[in-house]
Amino acid sequence: MIRKIFYAGLATATLMVGVAHATETIVWWDFLSGGDGVRMKSMLDEFNKEHDDKVKIDATTLEWGVPFYTKVQTSAAVGQGPDVMTYHESRMPLGISTGSLSAITPDELAASGIKASDFGPANWKAAEGSDGKQYGVPLDIHSVILYYNKDLLKKAGLLGDDGKPKGLDGVANWDAALAKLTANGVVGLSVPTADNASIWRIFYTLLNQQDGQFLKDGKFLEGDNLDKAATAMAEMQKSVKSGWTPAKTEYPASIAIFTSGKAAMHINGVWEVPTMVDLAKKGKLFDWGAIQIPAIYSHPATWADSHAFAIPNRVGNPVDPAKRKLVLDAVHWFNVHSLEWAGGGHVPAYLPVQEGAEFKALKPNSDYSSLAKTAVFDPVSTLAGVASPVYDAAGNYAMPAMNGELSPADAAKQMRDDLQGQAK
Amino acid sequence: MDRREALSRGLGTMLRSKRSEYVTAAVLMAPFVVIYGVLFAYPTIKMVQLSFTNAPLIGPGKWAGLDNFWRLASDRLFSVAIWNTIYFVILSVIPSTLLALVVALGVNRLKGWMQSVVLAAFFLPYILPVSVVFRIWGWMLDKDFGIAQDAIAPFNNGQHLSIFRTIPLFMPAVALVTIWWLLGFNVLLFIAGLRKISSEIYEAASLDGASRWAQFRRITWPLIWPVTVLVFTIQLILQLKIFDQVYLFAQGGRVDATMVMVQYIFKQAFQMNRGGLASAASLVLFLLIVVLSVLEFQLLRARGAR
């Protein structure tokens, strides 16, 4: 009996090895966890099912941030690592400068049907190196948005007939709205005031709404940009000092304050849309909505980043041309199917999907997808981007400014000097 | 004559066995020597070499002389990191050593299963990984939803207080968590030491009418001294290398204000891609640990031998 099972097992194993040989395997690394991870897993399953006998993606999810990018760098340097990986466009300058990324030629892109014209110009260019070569293909645009509680806004007379907030544009209106909403144990706005990344996104949004430039020709916050930075931080500080925004709130807590009805509005990434959708589905959330961050200063502008795909530059063991073709075909497949990815709150980078009827009908995405037109990407520098010194600086200076521990002017100056010092 | 013969024969066997003992010793030691050489000695030499170059994280660099060290000397963040590390050592090492002794004395007086239960209670946190420790305390002390806030609020005008985002509270809080986490191991070492002290000495002392305090002062303290020095040294070296807890609790916050030395090395190497500078900082930390621990060990031992 045991022998029978043994031989049966052996036969199955042989069979499986046989199948594996017939299939081309793409090794894939990503840093997508939480809701994004679940969604990507189901897309990967769909891809594998569709390419049943030819291509199979073998995906591994790794820790987001510095650990991910260090692992990519070290493994590529010794000829190891995946065939394809996700990469934040904002962190590509570091990847390119360390030689961890492999440039993709125009011919290769064309062969797989990937066209620059299918993407927003700023979005496409953010994956371009200073050498003019393309190092990645964007998948999405993700940003911060304003979540709001319709019941509370309505009570304060801040909800229009279309169900969207009204009267939030301009500093005076914005402040007045927050003051009005802060009453009866409810605050106007909850944000993760204890999280540097969230603070960076809000600060960078407010800076760009004033046409401020964070980095220009290698100089951080030069000239009147410094004053604009201080203005942005002063506004953030005012919100906390006036009691409109709770101080030093951790990321998960800031969401809970909003979803429990204790904050009328909440600023966070689009990736939290599924959190709200799921809660609403269970009947555990009030009537909610999400819009692009209002133009608090002269014009709309929102911080944005982009998940992109890149091929590592595996030294001594490069991804062979045939595999690269398969990889780029797969990348294109994910863009063509990015409507599903949009379910995670993201705006698809691929314009045929972004401008298609199906995405336009997708709620709440279509209520805020206009942000893509005025999206501002992180400054192009090895010091900037996800989990970078610039993000750290937001924690070291903008955070204490917002929480009232440092004057906005001092915070802006110290931020500039610190980053300028690190640039040496 | 017989005796002499036996003696010389015995000597021969001994010599022969001595030779084979050398071979055996060499064979048995080889794995360790190889591993020690490959995993410790060689990387250490390489690190020293790297610290004089401008190498990135991966790949070679150019000779840079003492540039990295001058840079460290003028880097405000590095001095912050040194100060924070020393501050943390002061906050954690002495209290955890003394507290462990007190707990061990208490546990040692218990008998039977009661002793096992109490000892287990103190030891349990020690088996937790640091990520779990971080989560437990992070949740308990969360500003908005932590259960410990009910105890904190009365001391803060009824307001909740963010412990890990209030800079003056950060190091003491992390030290407290660290002491809670690692105490069990120190207690174990002290209990082993206490059990080695013969109960006859205490019996004799109490027959002579020595008070409990006198017994502690004249018997326990001097006899437990070597263990105290050991615990202190282990803690000193461990806490000079503090990284995990500070990194986790500071994540996303005012990282620079609470930077410690290993974290500085991590930042330079992995975030800033500066292998040479990170090696130089590692070398400084290495020398600091060597000097401090040797100094401390000699000082305390000398005092004990007095």
Describe the structure.
The complex is a heterodimer of chains A (about 425) and B (about 300). Chain A is an alpha/beta fold. Chain A contains 19 helices and 15 strands. Chain A folds into two domains: about 1-140 and about 305-365, D-Maltodextrin-Binding Protein, domain 2, CATH 3.40.190.10; about 145-305 and about 390-420, Periplasmic binding protein-like II (D-Maltodextrin-Binding Protein, domain 2). Chain A is about 45% helix and about 15% strand. Chain A is globular, with a radius of gyration of 23 Å. The model of chain A has no long low-confidence stretch (mean pLDDT about 95). The longest helix of chain B has about 50 residues, at about 1-50. By secondary structure, chain B is an all-alpha fold. Chain B has helices spanning about 1-50, 65-75, 75-110, 110-125, 130-140, 150, 165-195, 200-205, 210-240, 245-250, 260-270, 275-305. At the A-B interface, helix 3, helix 11 and helix 18 of A face loops of B.
Proportion of strand residues of chain A: 15-25%
In terms of DSSP E residues, the strand content of chain B is under 5%
Fraction of residues in helix of chain A:
40-55%
Q: Please identify the oligomeric state.
A: heterodimer
CATH superfamily of the largest domain in chain B: MetI-like
Blueprint of the fold:
The complex is a heterodimer of chains A (424) and B (306).
Chain A: H1 2-22, E1 24-30, H2 34-50, E2 55-61, H3 66-77, E3 84-88, H4 92-97, E4 101-102, H5 106-111, H6 121-125, E5 137-138, E6 140-149, H7 150-155, H8 171-181, E7 187-190, H9 196-209, E8 215-216, E9 219-220, H10 225-241, H11 251-259, E10 263-269, H12 273-281, E11 288-292, E12 302-305, E13 307-312, H13 321-336, H14 338-342, E14 347-348, H15 351-354, H16 357-360, H17 365-368, E15 375-377, H18 389-402, H19 408-422
Parallel strand pairs in A: 1-2, 1-3, 7-10, 12-15
Antiparallel strand pairs in A: 3-13, 4-13, 5-13, 6-10, 6-11, 6-12, 6-14, 8-9
Helix pairs in contact in A: 9-10, 9-18, 10-19, 18-19
Chain B: H1 2-50, H2 67-74, H3 76-109, H4 112-123, H5 130-140, H6 149-152, H7 167-196, H8 199-207, H9 212-240, H10 244-250, H11 261-271, H12 275-305
